[in-house]
Amino acid sequence: MVAEHTVKAFDEDITRLRGLVAEMGGLAELSIAEAMDALVQGNEDLAAGVIARDKRIDQLEGEVDKLAVRVLALRAPMADDLREVIVALKIAGVVERIGDYAKNIAKRVGHIEGRKRFEPLTLLPAMNELAGEMVHDVLTAYAARDPVAATEVIQRDAKVDAFYDSIFRNFVSYMVENPATISSVAQLMFVARNIERIGDHATNIAEMVHFAATGNYLPDRGDVPAPAV
Amino acid sequence: MVAEHTVKAFDEDITRLRGLVAEMGGLAELSIAEAMDALVQGNEDLAAGVIARDKRIDQLEGEVDKLAVRVLALRAPMADDLREVIVALKIAGVVERIGDYAKNIAKRVGHIEGRKRFEPLTLLPAMNELAGEMVHDVLTAYAARDPVAATEVIQRDAKVDAFYDSIFRNFVSYMVENPATISSVAQLMFVARNIERIGDHATNIAEMVHFAATGNYLPDRGDVPAPAV
Predict the structure, then answer these.
(1) pLDDT per residue as tens digits for the range A85-137
(2) CA-based nearest residue to B105, from B43, B159, B173
(3) pLDDT confidence bin for B220, thresholds 50/70/90
(4) CB B186 to CB A183 under 8 A?
(5) A97 interaction partners in chain B (CB closer than 8 Å)
(6) All domains of chain B, ordered by start, with CATH?
(7) Would you call A222 and B58 a contact, using CB atoms and an 8 Å cutoff?
(8) Which residues of B touch A187 (CB under 8 A)?
C-alpha cells in the first residue's frame, strides 16, 4: 500500500511538472505571435504586455525548478522517471529562453522609424510564423511523448535558417540603398536573429523530447549555427 | 561503514562533476579570447580551432548530464548535496551556451572585408576582455564556493551592456558614413551582441553560484535585457 501511494504521488508530481511546462509553453507561443504583431503595428501597449508576460514565464520556471528538486529529493526516482524529471527541468530552461527572445523582439517596438509600409519589416512575419509553429509543434510532441513528431520539427529548422540568411542579405542591400534607415534595419536584423534562435531552441526541445521518450540522444546535439552570410 | 563509503563515493562524484564543469569553463574562456584574436588577425586557422573546440565542450556537457543523472539515481542526495548536483547540471548548460557564442564569433572570421585597420573592429577587443574576465571570475567563484565574488561579477554586467550600447550607436554612424562597409559592420554588430550575451550568461552563472552556496535565489533572476538603443 505504501508503495502504491508513493507511485501515485510521483505520478501526480510528474503531471504537475508537465502542466507547468505546458503553461510556460503556451505563454511563450502567445508572446512570439504578439511580439511580431506589436512590431508590425507599432503597438507599444501590446509590446508592454509581452514584456510583462515574460516575468510570469520566469516565475513558472522557478516553480518547475523547485518542484523538480523536491521530487528528486522526496521520491528519488529511477530510470525513466528520473529522465522525465530531468527533461522537464531542461525544457523549462529552454522555454524560458524562448520567452526572452520574444521579449527582446517586443523591446524593439518603438525603435523602428517610419514603420508604415517599411519594406524590411514585411519580410519578418512569415519567418516568425515558421518558428512559432516549430515551438507549438514541439510542445505538442512533448505532451504526446512523441519522438517522431519531435524529429520532424528538427528538420524544419533548416527552413528557418535559410529564411534568416536570405533576410540578412536583403537587409544589407536595403541599408546600402537607404542609408537613412540603417538604424531601424539594424534593429530588425536582431529581430530576425532572435526568430532564428527561437527555431534553434525548438530544435533543442525536440532533442530532449526524443531523449525523454527513447532514452537515447540524437546523433548531433544542440548546435547553434552562425548564419552562412 | 556502508554509510561512510557512500558519503565518500558521493564526494568523489561531486569532485568529478565540478572538475568537468571547470574543464568546460577553461575551454570556453580560451575560445572567447581566441575567437577575438582570430577576428582581429583575420586568422581562419585559429577560428577553425575555436569551432572544433566547441564540439569538445558539448561532449563535456553530455558527460556532466550523464554523471549528474547517475548521481541522482544512485545516491539520491538530499538538501545541500542535491542542490550541488542540480547547480552543476545548470552551470554546465550555461557554459555550453557561452562556448556557442564564442564559436559564433569565430564563424564570422572570413566575412569581414578590409580587415586591416578597420575602425569598427578596434572597438571590440576591450569589450570582449571585460566579458571574458566575468566568465573567468565567476568560474573561480564557483570553484571557491564564494557567493560574494559571484555577486561582484553580476555588478560588472552593466559595464558590458553600456559598452554594447555605445558600440551599437558607433556602428550605425559608421555604416551611414561608409555604406560600402555595411555588410562587414553588420557582422560585427552580431559579434558585439554575442559578447554582450556572454556577459549575461556569466551573470546567470553567478546567480547559480550564489544559490548553490546559500540556498537562496537572488531577488531578480536571469533577465536578458535588450539593448537600450
Answers:
(1) 999 999 999 999 999 999 999 999 988 876 667 889 999 999 999 999 999 99
(2) B43
(3) low
(4) no
(5) 224
(6) 2-214 (1.20.58.220)
(7) yes
(8) 229
